[in-house]
Amino acid sequence: MTTNPPIPNVWHLRTVAEVSRKNCMICFKPSTSVLITPNSKDFFYICRGHLKDRGFCSPLEDTEQNQREAMRIEVEQEYREKLAAKERKEAERQKKEKENNEKDEKGKGKDKNSAEEDKAERDKPEAAEASASQETQSPPAEQTPRIYALHRNFYQMRLDRIRKAEIAKRNRERLSNPAVFPSVPSGLP
């Protein structure tokens, strides 16, 4: 008969504040990374380097993260398409304005310097937009997986620790109950 383990072998990576760091379970160096079960029943501090060790744990596919990444790419692509359409419309508008300005210059003898100044003023906001969009498109940082499964031996160590804690709790409760102890003999020997 197989029993369900008290905790599943699914561990979420969380980061705590620098002041709350504690010793790593493996190497005892201070760490801010915590592996915690989804039901928050068990947790332990671990170094980021140990998470890369394939003998300790292996990353599980984070479907939620993959969905977010796909959605981000889709939104980014739509944004680029809208931006490209806006730039095309702006280019067409400028082309029409240029044609109109040329017609006006021929007809009225408009000053060329003022036309160039107007064009320079219109181009300044576009240049600022282009530089702002380039700044937001920074290369993505290396992301580590957020969900892990411990390897068999380490997972068994965590299960044993939880079972020992439950047994110790049961023993403390038994010792605090006076009915567990035998009564003092009432008869003479």
Explained architecture:
With 189 residues, the protein is α+β, with helices and mostly antiparallel strands. It is 53% helix and 12% strand. It starts with 10 loop residues before the first strand and ends in a 13-residue tail after the last helix. The model is unreliable at 135-141 (pLDDT under 50).
Provide the gyration radius in Å: 34 Å
Bulk shape = rod-shaped
Q: Approximately how much beta-strand content do the residues carry?
A: 5-15%
Overall residue-averaged pLDDT value = 80
List segments where confidence is low: pLDDT < 50 over at least 5 consecutive residues: 135-141
Write out the strand line-up for the largest beta sheet, numbering strands in chain order: 5-4-1-7-6
Oligomeric description of these chains: single chain
Percent of residues in helices: 40-55%
Number of helices: 4
Order of helices and strands: EEEEEHEHHEH
Structural class: alpha+beta
Say how many strands there are.
Answer: 7
* Major β-sheet profile: 5 strands, antiparallel
Whole-Å distance between the termini?
A: 49 Å
Question: Nutshell version of this structure?
Answer:
The chain is α+β, with helices and mostly antiparallel strands and 189 residues long.
What attributes characterize this protein structure?
rod-shaped; 189 residues; alpha+beta; two-stranded antiparallel sheet; five-stranded antiparallel β-sheet
